[in-house]
């Protein structure tokens, strides 16, 4: 079973599947409606998802940056489909 399929477009791409394909999803025992997989979080209770991307290193040249994206998902034709996401929080640091 594939937890998530990504596209060949930023900010996520098929390389994410290669990176996280063998990683099992983690479920919080105190909140069974939330699953985490790599940088992705699925909230099954409110049918939403979020993921974080970033780059650079603290203290490195140019510092580091991150962006958090959030969206909803719904069932369409018997398949779960992620609806378009929006950028939420973002930041830079040294």
Automatic annotation (TrEMBL):
<protein>
    <submittedName>
        <fullName>Uncharacterized protein</fullName>
    </submittedName>
</protein>
